[in-house]
Write a structure and sequence with these properties.
This protein is mostly helical. The protein contains 16 helices and 2 strands. A hairpin with a 2-residue loop joins strand 1 and strand 2. Keywords: Cell membrane, Ion transport, Membrane, Transmembrane, Transmembrane helix, Transport.
């Protein structure tokens, strides 16, 4: 039995258990629309994707799964998103307990300026924000579906609920077969989805900091400043890149008016941050746009939220390290604060492990599948970063490749929390140091 005092082992076990329960429920005959049992790999892949709040699918969600099956999927990504966000926050706090004041000020592992003794208030605030954001988004979407598209109120409410929960949890699942491509000209549909994704992708520590201090920048923690500034910069970059590269593409933005081009470029700039909805056909994107998405997906969103990827703060720490080397500075830092060596090593470790895992998975899948390498790489990054975007090859992959993607989704979602926490809690000082010697680098 795993002791509660060891959260590093407890987190993956709990989420693995949830995946197995979801797989069992989706394997029931009445979970599918035709009443037959879903193949094991389809049930396992869907459950993993839902619990890891990814959104990759091998079967058409609203067509293949029954209403019961779709409710199970919704419950899985709601529990997965809420549980991961809560676990990331609380175990980030626990990572801070093991250090003295000096180390706490230098350590930023999946947490921000949070008090270690207020676990109940943390959980209450997580629940409050989740319910409020999802309820507001659901109300807006339900009203739009009902009054603008002549849906019955029960149908509009279902689609509103499904998309609001999916958006806030960055799950990317849709109750429509084409995701939200049918609503690519409707800002009142795309807008609430974008807003929910961005709020959740900031991460709970940022939400809590803003809740306490409002928009007073000077009172924000370094973590919040880096996350907000980094998120804004990446959203702007994604928007400009998509707009410029796809402006004349007849398969994406080309046929649209200026307003729709701006709207869909903005929407797509948000989605690679691990949301997974698409209003454009990714399979028709230019290669340079796909390359841009590699970067955006790998970075992901904020720490201790529902987003995946290596996280915005991790990327900015690496950026600051490179900048300090180029400028010849002794310390790396941002916003008039320097990073501790432990933070720099954690950022490097998480990034190297992520890249290595994606490389290994891509190489293996390419060896057993005739599909294009760039599509496979896109799929692997999307799975690891729990994005859910796809160029359309997921269902064409062999079963062993789908199992590899399941591992990527699980490790990418749960592993980033456990690895970062383990690095913080596992800090051990040797009573000795080896002699230093220079070597040639580069």
């Amino acid at each position: 039995m795993i002791a509660l005092r060891d959260p590093i082992r407890l987190i993956p076990v709990l989420f693995l258990g949830l995946i197995l329960i979801g797989t069992g429920l989706l394997s029931l005959p009445f979970a599918t629309a035709d009443g037959g049992r879903a193949p094991f790999i389809a049930a396992l892949f869907t459950a993993t994707s839902a619990v890891a709040v990814t959104g990759l699918i091998v079967v058409d969600t609203p067509v293949y799964w029954s209403q019961f099956g779709q409710w199970i999927i919704l419950a899985l990504f709601q529990i997965g998103g809420f549980g991961i966000m809560t676990a990331a926050t609380l175990f980030g706090l626990m990572a801070g307990r093991g250090f003295g004041l000096k180390d706490r000020m230098a350590t930023q592992v999946e947490r921000s300026r949070l008090e270690t003794g207020d676990a109940r208030s943390v959980l209450r605030l997580v629940l409050f924000i989740t319910v409020i954001v999802e309820a507001v988004a659901m109300a807006m979407l339900t009203a739009r579906f009902a009054f603008a598209y002549d849906m019955s109120l029960p149908s509009a409410a279902w689609h509103g609920l499904f998309h609001s929960v999916s958006a806030f949890n960055n799950a990317g699942f849709s109750s429509f077969s084409d995701s939200v491509m049918s609503y690519q000209d409707d800002a009142l549909i795309l807008g609430p989805i974008m807003a929910s994704v961005v709020i959740a992708a900031l991460g709970f520590p940022v939400m809590q900091d803003i809740w306490r201090h409002g928009l007073a920048w000077r009172h924000w923690s370094l973590h919040t400043k880096m996350t907000v500034a980094g998120t804004a910069a990446l959203l702007a970059f994604g928007f400009v890149a998509t707009l410029a590269m796809e402006w004349s593409n007849p398969g994406t933005l080309g046929p649209m008016g200026i307003g729709s081009k701006l709207l869909n470029s903005a929407f797509h700039s948000v989605m690679p941050r691990t949301a997974g909805f698409n209003s454009l056909d990714l399979g028709a994107f230019h290669d340079e746009t796909i390359m841009t998405n590699f970067f955006l997906m790998l970075v992901g969103g904020g720490s201790a939220g529902t987003a995946g990827g290596i996280k915005v703060t991790t990327f900015l720490v690496l950026f600051a390290i490179v900048l300090s080397e180029v400028l010849g500075r002794r310390d790396a830092g941002l916003f008039q604060r320097r990073f501790g060596r432990a933070i720099e090593r954690q950022a490097l470790s998480v990034t190297v492990m992520a890249v290595a895992l994606i490389f290994a998975a891509t190489t293996y899948i390419a060896s057993i599948s005739p599909l294009p390498l760039d599509d496979i790489l896109f799929e692997c990054i999307s799975a690891f970063a729990t994005v859910g975007l796809s160029t359309g090859i997921t269902a064409d992959l062999p079963p062993t490749a789908l199992l590899v993607l399941c591992v990527l989704m699980f490790v990418g979602r749960v592993g980033t929390i456990t690895v970062a926490t383990a690095l913080a809690l596992g800090k051990r000082e040797r009573p000795y140091r080896y002699p230093e010697e220079n070597l040639i680098v580069g």
